[in-house]
Structure formats: C-alpha cells, structure tokens
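Sequence design from tokenized structure. All designs in this work follow the same two-part layout: the structure record, then the generated sequence. An example of the structure record is given first.
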C-alpha cells in the first residue's frame, strides 16, 4: 500500500467552529455599529484574525489606532473561547471519525493544518487529539492561507512530498493554498464556492471508503 499524506483543516471540516467565529465577529462588529452578512462572512473563513478584523473595519469604513486594534482582537478571541469551552464530541461533523479511522486502518499519515491558534484545545475538547500524527496550527506559521506554508510544514512533518498529499478544506483560501502547494484539494462545502478544488463534497457522508482507497493508490 502506498503512503500518502492526508491533511485536514479544522474549522468547518472536522468541527463547525465557523459558527462561533461568526457569532464572535458579528458581536464585535455590532459594537462598532457595523453589520455584515453570511455572504461577507465567507470572506473571513480560513483567514487570520488580523486580516479578518481589517476586512470588518473596511466594511464599516472605520479607522482605529493600533492599540484599539489589538484590544478588539483580544476581545473577539475571549468571546470565541467562551464558546469553545462548551465543546464536546457532539461537535464533530458527520462521518469525520469514520474517515479518520479508515485512514488509520490503511496506515496513512494524518495531519491537521489549521490557521486556528486554538486547534489543539479544540481537538482535545472533542476527543480527536490523538487521531493526528502531527498538528500544524496558527502558532506554527507566519503566513496565512492562501499561502501554502501551513500545508507544506505539515507535509514535511509527515515525511511526505507535497504532490503526495491530499488536503480537506472548506475555504477558498485553503483550497488555493493546497493547489499552490501542488497537493490534491478536496473541498468540503458548496461546489459554487469551492469550484477551484479538485473534488468537492457537501460533507464527509458523501465520501466513500472506495474514494479514499483510490486516493491512496493513485
């Protein structure tokens, strides 16, 4: 059996923390008299905290001092963490454990590649921490997606060539990062949003064991 490297994003792929980010960002935006839509929220997915706040401020046409900026980022994170602390295994998205289990059985190396600085905390909360051979998160990278840095570090830690890696992502920035790294990109979500991916599935319930085996053997 050939060895590939399977790299999973966290938010929106393994757990739906995107809704908590949305609630925390919207609360912050509302406190500045800015409102934003679900559509605009798509632009915040897979993007760093700094870039997200910059976008929100530009939507409201607001300029603030560096100190205020740092204060708002901390406030958003505290709000987000109160949501995170309530998480448990019920937050894992459908059939994710089944796919991870199948990869383990096939002795395939598995990595997490996420922009989230809270990735390790979340994985422990939902009981999946030990499912990954390596974890690369927001604390390990200096460049945000669509830069491929997070996935390239993960590939290196799995001792796998980038072209032998398969990435599961729910954001446009993440798909672009995987494509730039010459990895196979699998979008989890809407075809209309993630059209640049090599494959798109609504969620993991649509991914068969046969498809995973095919990815391993091809």
């Amino acid at each position: 059996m050939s060895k590939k490297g399977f790299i999973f994003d966290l938010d929106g792929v393994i757990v739906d923390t995107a809704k908590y980010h949305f609630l925390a960002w919207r609360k912050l935006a509302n406190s500045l008299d800015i409102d934003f839509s679900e559509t605009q929220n798509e632009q915040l997915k897979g993007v760093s905290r700094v870039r997200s706040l910059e976008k929100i401020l530009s939507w409201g046409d607001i300029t603030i001092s560096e100190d205020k900026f740092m204060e708002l980022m901390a406030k958003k994170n505290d709000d987000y963490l109160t949501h995170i602390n309530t998480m448990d295994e019920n937050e894992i998205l459908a059939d994710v454990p089944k796919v991870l289990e199948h990869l383990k059985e096939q002795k395939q190396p598995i990595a997490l590649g996420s922009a989230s600085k809270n990735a390790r905390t979340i994985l422990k909360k939902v009981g999946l921490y030990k499912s990954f051979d390596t974890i690369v998160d927001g604390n390990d990278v200096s460049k945000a997606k669509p830069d491929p840095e997070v996935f390239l570090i993960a590939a290196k830690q799995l001792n796998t060539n980038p072209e032998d890696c398969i990435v599961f992502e729910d954001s446009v920035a993440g798909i672009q990062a995987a494509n730039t790294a010459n990895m196979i990109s699998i979008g989890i979500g809407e075809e209309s949003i993630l059209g640049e991916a090599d494959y798109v599935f609504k969620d993991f319930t649509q991914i068969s064991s046969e498809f995973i085996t095919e990815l391993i053997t091809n």
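The longest strand covers residues 165-169. We note this feature because it recurs in several other targets discussed in the main text.
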